[in-house]
Amino acid sequence: MKFDRLSRRMFLRGAAGASLSIPLLESLVPREARAQGVGVRRFISIISPYDMGHHASWLPNTNSPLTNIGQPSRTFAPGNGHHDIRWQPLTDFVPNSSTPLSIVAGTAFNPYLSSMNLMRSLNHTVRYGHGGAFVLGGIPGDAGILAERGILPTIETADVVLNKNRAFNPAGLPLIFCGNSGFGPDAYSYSANGGAAANNTCLGDDLLAIYNRLFSNGTLPENGAGTIRHPRYDILTRVQEDYTRVRNSRRISAVDRQTLDNALDQFRDTQMSLTRVATSSCSHRSLSRQGTFWQAASMPTIGAAMADLIVASIMCDSARVFTIGAPQLQGTHNGQIDQHEEVSHVPFSQVGGRNSWELSAERKNAIVRNFVAPLLNRLSAATDPSNGRSYLYNSLVYFTAESGIAHGYGSHPVMLFGNAGGSVSSGNYIDYANRARGAFAGADGFTDTVGAPDFSSNWWGVHYNRLLVTILQAMGLSPADYENHSLNQQLYGRTDLGAGNQNLQNIGGFGFALPQDISGQMTNSWGFNTYIRPGLENQDLRMFSRPLPLPT
User: Exposed, middle or buried, 515 (CB in 10 Å: 0-12/13-18/19+)?
Assistant: First the structure.
C-alpha cells in the first residue's frame, strides 16, 4: 500500500505494478502526514445537573445487577512509572446499530463511536456535592463552600483559561455560557475575579437571548450558504473510475458485471450524500430561536434548534469555547416529588417498581437523544475549511455530570467526542483503574464490599484533573499556559502521603490536588475526616501533571 501526500490518495499495488485507488484510510496514513493541518479547534463542555445516582449507567452494556462491573479486555502499558491501562474498542459493545451502548447513551451515539472516548476510574481526592466548578477544575468563591473545601482560593476554570489564551483564541472571542446552574456558588465557569462567573451575565434560558449573544443581535455578517464537497468526494470519483474500467472489460461475466453495478450504485449514493452535507459557510438568520433551553431535554425540536445555534456559531467563528449546563427533564416521574432528594440521593430505592438510578439514567438519555446527539450530528456533517476535516474532528465535546457517584468522588462520568484536530485518538472505552490499590465506597449508601448489592463498582484509578490537562494540551496549550505553582504547596516535602508521594517538591498540572487542610480532622457535612486520607494516598501525585495515556 502507498500513500500519496499531494493527492491524499491511497493505492493498492499489485505484483505486476498495477494499482487500485481506494478511499483514504486515516488509520493507515503515516503519523507525520496525519499531523499536518490541525485546523481551528473548539471546545464544548456539556455538564448535566445532579449526580443522578449510579454512574455505572454511563458504562457500556451495564444492566443490573451492578455488583462488580468488569474491565475492558485489552491492556496497554504507558511506561514511565504509570500502571497499565485497560481498554477496548467501543464497537465491541455495539454489534449492530440497534444495540444500546449504555443506559445513558442508548443508541444515539452509535454513529459516532469512532469519534468517542468513554472513560472510567477518573477520581477526585475529596467528596463534594453539586460542585459545578470542580468539573472544569475551579473552586467557587462562596465563603461557605470554601470552608467545607479547606479555605481554598478561587481559581479560573479550564474553559476560562482556554478562552483567555490568545494562541487558541487570537481574536478574543467571548466564552459562551448558558443553561443550568446559573451563577450561584457552584456555577461551572469561573474567572479569577472574586469567583465571578466568566461572562458576568448568563445568556439565559431563552433561545432568542442566546442567538443574540452568538450573532450580535443578528447583525453578524453572513457569507452565504454555499454547499461544498466533502474532501472524500473526489476519492470516491476515482474509485468509481476503477470500477467502471473493470466493469467494461470483455473478460468479465454478466453476473460479475451485475455485482459491480450494485456496488457502483452504493458508491454513487455515498458520493451524493457527501455533496449535500458539507455546508461550511456562515449562515444564521434563518435559524429557529423559539423556546427555552430548558425544553431541549424533552422537546426534540428545541434540542435541535439549540444544536443548530452552537454549530452555526462555530461555522461563523463567533465563539470557540462553549460551557453548557445541560437541561434536565422537569416534573415528577411516577409520583416522586423531588428528583434530587427522592431519587438521586437514594440510588438503590424503588420508584414505581424501578431502581431510582435507572430512572435517573433514563432522564440523562433524554438529554443525549434530544440535544447532545443532534449537536454531534451537525458537527460531523459539516466540513471545516481550515483543513478540510469535519468540525467534530477538529473539536472536543465533553459530556459529563457534575460529580462522581451520588455526592462522591468516584469515577466521574466522562464522554469525549472529537479529535481536537488529530491531537486525541478516539473510539475506545478506557478504564484507568489500578485494581491492585482496591475499591472504595464513595458516598450515599454505597459500599466498598465487592459483590455486595450496593457495591459502588469504583476502584482507585487516576486523578480526574489529568483529564483537564489532556483537554488543555489537546487544544494546543502548554503547561506554562495553565500551571500555577502556588497551588498544592501543602503537599510538598511530606513523608506521610502514600508510597508514591514522598518528599514531593513540585506537582504542576491544573488545579487543586485536594483541599488545603489534609489533617483529616475537619468536621463538616462532607466527611473529610473519612475520605481525605484514602483519597490522597491512593493517588500517585507524581502523575498529576501528565495528560491521560490513550490507546492509539
Answer: buried
DSSP at 361: H
pLDDT string in tens for the chain (552-residue length): 444 433 334 444 544 444 444 444 444 444 444 444 689 999 999 988 765 567 788 999 765 557 778 899 999 999 999 999 999 999 999 998 899 999 899 999 999 999 999 999 998 876 666 666 778 887 654 444 444 455 566 788 899 999 999 999 999 998 888 765 443 445 666 766 544 444 434 556 689 988 998 999 999 999 865 554 555 555 656 666 666 677 677 777 777 777 766 666 665 555 555 544 445 589 999 999 998 877 887 889 999 999 999 999 999 999 999 988 876 655 544 444 466 667 777 777 787 777 777 777 888 898 999 999 999 999 999 999 889 999 999 999 999 987 666 666 788 899 999 999 999 999 999 999 999 888 887 666 778 888 888 888 888 899 999 999 999 999 999 999 999 988 888 888 888 887 788 899 989 999 888 765 565 444 444 444 445 556 667 778 899 999 999 998
The H or E element spanning position 260 is helix 254-277
Number of separate domains in the chain: 1
Residue 493 within a domain: no
On whether residue 265 sits in a domain, the answer given is no
Does residue 6 sit within a domain?
Answer: no
Q: Which residues pair with 74 in a beta bridge?
A: 87
Q: Which domain holds residue 83?
A: 37-221+294-478
CATH number, domain of 417, equals 3.40.720
Residue 510 forms part of a structural domain? no
Q: Sort residue 80 into left (φ over 0), alpha (ψ -120 to 50) or beta.
A: left
User: Cell 417498581 identifies what position?
Assistant: 353
Q: Which residue has the cell 498529576?
A: 544
Phi, psi of 351 (to 5 degrees): -125, 110
Distance CA 127, CA 433 (A): 18
